Amino acid sequence: MSFTPVLIFFLGGVGMVFAALVVSRLLAPHRPNPLKNTTYECGEEPVGSPWLRFNTRFYVIVLIFLIFDVEVLFLFPWAVNLRELGLFAWVDMAIFIAILMVGLAYVWGKGDLEWIRPRGSSAGSAKGR
Asked: What does pTM read for this prediction?
């Protein structure tokens, strides 16, 4: 089996991206301005350094939201085809939702849905293990 067409396709894709970047660099106007280079915060003047540390709770809550949000996407095709799929699909989805509920109960019980944790219940403590 020859991989020449795959290589040509790959090089063509890389070449198109490179060509688009070069053409955009040549044709786009370049007028630097300190006001244009400032951070935009809804029309407000930026205050403080942009290099501040975010609370890691934000990332945990976002990841939990994404996990459950993606899982809920599986419910739409199931709900649309439920009559054709029958009882087996209903039982299958009930098990799926039960697994999601166990995960939600675990996250809730662990306290990861709270934005601010009470003192002494940090994730890294040996007491919570």
From this structure: 0.46
